[in-house]
Specification:
Blueprint lengths: L5 H13 L6 H10 L37 E6 L7 E5 L4 E4 L7 E2 L10 E6 L7 E7 L3 E8 L7 E3 L20 E6 L7 E5 L2 E5 L7 E5 L14 E5 L2 E8 L3 E5 L4 E4 L1 H5 L7 E8 L7 E10 L2 E10 L5 E9 L8 E4 L6 E5 L3 E5 L3 E6 L14 E8 L5 E7 L2 E6 L8 E4 L13 E6 L6 E6 L3 E6 L2 E7 L1
Antiparallel strand pairs: 1-2, 2-3, 3-4, 5-6, 6-7, 7-8, 9-10, 10-11, 11-12, 13-14, 14-15, 15-16, 17-18, 18-19, 19-20, 21-22, 22-23, 23-24, 25-26, 26-27, 27-28, 29-30, 30-31, 31-32
Length: about 475
């Protein structure tokens, strides 16, 4: 007797009712992905991607609002070859391009536990060594994964808590979700793991861990508190700085923790309550650390820039500026590799501070233009310079991956959407709702996370509502 999983029955019923296999793709994909096989005796269905590629169009043929493809959380760019980019999706694994975005491939398809990518680290000496920490849709975490062969094979790294010996992952408590995973650039056995409430360290490649800082009292229900960023001291990788709503300096293989919160924030020039603090570092300017301090007053957000001199311990506050609200868990801080006075801050939009020319913070991206645009919600930033010495940034956001080149002071940068040019792109649109037309076999309706409502009419996807 042939046994069919109930999902198979649903699939067949819908198939015969609608008379078209394509129509039910979105409805049942998630179930088949969760079950290795719904029958030992039934050949699994052959699936093909029918979602949109490239930019959506309107019915008048023009490009839609600046939407893009889907949410990317983290990016890494080879500083010696900016055509080589890795992109970590919100729920789609890790994507790779070696031609600047013309073609992308998913290098984590054979690692089913690695879906949402919260942290992405690549060995600077061997780019086949990739380390990723996973959070799926901000609902649960499957933990830490690494590959030493560029993604052909993956391994899970357990995080055994020193007090209980239990594995930290998988986890459903947001307090334990990973925020950042750093590996020592000269000794891969030394690694640090930042969660929303802990700082952990391992000196034996993750076999055992020790707790450096523990804040179980943090309330992170709405991401109000908690750690947010972790960086090596650019002049000494044996020293680590941690920030969130506190700022700490860790040294001595984790044995020394110095609280810098009061010292750095005593001259705070911003408005309202501090919600999150992130950092920027540069090896070329190793005597300084830049802080982007996000504060809120009466539902209005502010970015305050602070510069900490690691030698003299002096703190400079170049300025504080109002920004779009809602940036608590999206803020970024990156410094130019060529000019320490050039700083890009990320939030809802991308902002630029130029100390030498226009010492005010101004938006360098546009959300609505059909060209030279970037989707809102900056999730990650990489600041580099090309071989000609032109400054450029790469941005991971809710619309995929973008890059921008510096033009002139006070002006928007020159933006390019590289996540999906219409073929072989990052296919990571997150479907939230789907239905089929009752009267036409070739019409489907869909809604995507932070993208738009869309219609697929005779094989072409049209954008009908932004956001």
């Amino acid at each position: 007797m042939m046994i069919i999983h109930p999902v198979g029955i649903i699939f067949r019923a819908l198939h015969y009712y609608h008379g078209d296999l394509v129509k039910v793709t979105f409805l049942v994909t998630v179930f088949f992905l969760q079950w290795p096989s719904f029958s030992q005796n039934v050949e699994p269905p052959r699936w093909e991607y029918i979602g949109h590629q490239g930019l959506y169009t309107r019915y008048n043929g023009k490009y839609s609002y600046a939407v893009g493809q889907g949410w990317i959380n983290r990016i890494w760019v080879d500083p010696e070859n900016t055509s080589f980019v890795l992109a970590g999706g919100h729920n789609s694994g890790i994507w790779k391009t070696t031609d600047g975005g013309d073609n992308w491939t998913n290098i984590s398809e054979n690692c089913p536990g690695l879906t949402g990518v919260k942290s992405l680290y690549v060995d600077p000496k061997n780019h086949n060594k990739i380390y990723a920490a996973s959070i799926a849709l901000d609902i649960y975490s499957t933990g830490l994964f690494y590959t030493h062969d560029g993604g052909q094979s993956w391994n899970r790294l357990l995080v055994k808590l020193p007090d209980s010996g239990k594995n930290l992952y998988p986890a459903v408590s947001k307090k334990e979700f990973p925020v950042k995973w750093l590996i020592h650039p000269e000794n891969e056995k030394i690694m640090y793991l930042l969660t929303w409430t802990r700082v952990l360290m391992s000196s034996n490649a993750g076999i055992t861990w020790q707790t450096i800082i523990d804040r179980p009292e943090y309330n992170i229900y709405w991401w109000e508190q908690g750690f947010k960023d972790m960086e090596f001291d650019p002049s000494d990788p044996s020293v680590v700085f941690v920030s969130g709503i506190e700022i700490h300096r860790i040294s001595g293989n984790g044995s020394k923790v110095k609280d810098l919160t009061t010292h750095i924030l005593e001259g705070f020039t911003g408005n309202g309550d501090i919600k999150k603090i992130v950092m920027g570092t540069r090896k070329a300017f190793s005597d300084r650390i830049w802080f982007n301090i996000h504060s809120v007053e009466k539902n209005r957000g502010y970015f305050t820039l602070a510069i900490y001199n690691t030698g003299s311990r002096e703190v400079e506050y170049p300025g504080s500026w109002p920004v779009s609200p809602g940036s608590e868990h999206k803020i970024q801080c990156e410094v130019s590799p060529l000019d320490p006075g050039h700083i890009v801050l990320g939030g809802i939009s991308a902002y630029f501070y130029d100390a030498g020319n226009t010492p005010e913070l101004y938006i360098i991206s546009s959300r609505n233009a059909p060209e030279n645009w970037m989707h809102d919600d900056v999730r990650d930033l990489v600041y580099l310079a090309d071989k000609a010495g032109r400054e450029q940034i790469f941005v991971a956001c809710d619309g995929s991956v973008f890059k921008a080149a510096f033009t002139e002071p006070g002006k928007p940068w020159d933006w390019t959407y590289i996540g999906d040019d219409g073929s072989n792109g990052i296919l990571n649109g997150e479907l939230k709702g789907f239905d089929c037309s009752d009267t036409r076999d070739d019409v489907m309706y869909a809604g995507f996370q932070d993208m738009n409502a869309a219609i697929c009419d005779n094989g072409t996807w049209y954008n009908v509502l932004a956001g």
